[in-house]
Write a structure and sequence with these properties.
This protein has 110 residues and is mainly alpha-helical. The protein has 5 helices and 2 strands, in the order H-E-E-H-H-H-H. Strand 1 and strand 2 form a beta hairpin. Helix 4 crosses helix 5. It is elongated.
Length: 110
Amino acid sequence: MAHTYQESLEDISPAQWDKLSTLDEYPSDSFVFSAFGYDLHIRDELVAGAFASLPEQEQQILILHCVAAMADGEIGGLVGMSRSAVQRHRTKTLNELRQRLEDNGGRNAK
């Protein structure tokens, strides 16, 4: 004789529900920025706007660093800069981006 186990839907924990459900994602749910075949998807409109306002070269450096996890020397080879120049641009751009988000969004961007 087979044993059956039943559980009321009311007794299912949030962690169990997470295993039973999926989240549909659509291209229109995010803003997409691309560099050298790598795509950065940003869902937050404020963040996407701040990122879009950056010069193309700075966008490329951040995409290659954050999405492709490339080292500064590798990025430099693609964008035509020295490793140290890439590091300076990346650091300066991340600080500017953080400042823009803090100024425009009233959030604490960390």
